[in-house]
Amino acid sequence: MAREVFRDGKPPVEPRESRCPACGAPFHCGVDDPGGCWCAKVPPLPREAYIADGRCLCEKCLRAARA
């Protein structure tokens, strides 16, 4: 049986699909992406703006919460 070889020596990571707890929209969580998640490029929210369960917001809701 041939062993599968990957470009960087690691198997590909399945994309993480999430649902926004604020609006219910599906979005891609890029925490495992080589360049990191898109949310790291948005300034962080103030501590009191985070939701209690700690789930991620979609880009639209995160940007609205920042405004």
Provide the number of structural domains. Answer: 1
**For the residues shown, what is the average pLDDT?**
77
**Spans of at least 5 consecutive residues with low confidence:** none
Largest sheet strand order: 1-2
Specify the biggest β-sheet: 2 strands, antiparallel
Whole-number radius of gyration? 16 Å
- Beta-sheet strand percentage? 5-15%
What does this structure look like?
With 67 residues, this protein is low in regular secondary structure. It has one domain. 12% of the residues lie in helices and 12% in strands. The protein is built from one helix and two strands. The protein has one helix at residues 59-66; strands spanning 16-19, 26-29. A two-stranded antiparallel ribbon has the order 1-2. Strand 1 (16-19) and strand 2 form a beta hairpin.
Short précis:
The protein is largely without helices or strands. It has one helix at 59-66; strands spanning 16-19, 26-29. The chain is 12% helix and 12% strand.
Task: Looking at this protein, list some descriptive labels.
about 70 residues, two-stranded antiparallel sheet, 2 strands, little secondary structure, single chain, globular, about 10% strand, 1 helix
